[in-house]
Inverse folding.
């Protein structure tokens, strides 16, 4: 079967639902795909693995994957040990 015969993939209902949920989550957090001055995810308390470009944010209102240079209104500094 030639590639031309394959249907073009399209988002399903669940994708629309998840997209909307994540959009609301991002709006609540004022989540941005860029730093806010010196503040960014990889120097935030809630960023799980600070040496990775994408990591899990364990802030209780988020709990999603975020980029190392993103930012949101719940940014918190990492306390000195
Ligand atoms: S709380 Fe906000 S700034 Fe901190 S890691 Fe999560 S998304 Fe990034």
């Amino acid at each position: 079967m030639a590639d031309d015969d394959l249907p073009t993939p399209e988002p399903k209902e669940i994708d629309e639902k998840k997209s909307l949920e994540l959009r609301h989550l991002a709006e609540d957090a004022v989540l941005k795909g860029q730093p806010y001055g010196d503040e960014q995810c990889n120097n935030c308390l809630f960023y799980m693995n600070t040496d990775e470009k994408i990591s899990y944010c364990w802030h209780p209102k988020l709990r999603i994957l975020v980029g190392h240079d993103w930012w949101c209104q719940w940014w918190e500094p990492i306390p000195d040990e």
The first strand starts at residue 54 and ends at 57. Residues 14 and 20 are 10 Å apart (CA to CA). Strands lie at 54-57, 64-67. The first helix runs from residue 13 to 29.
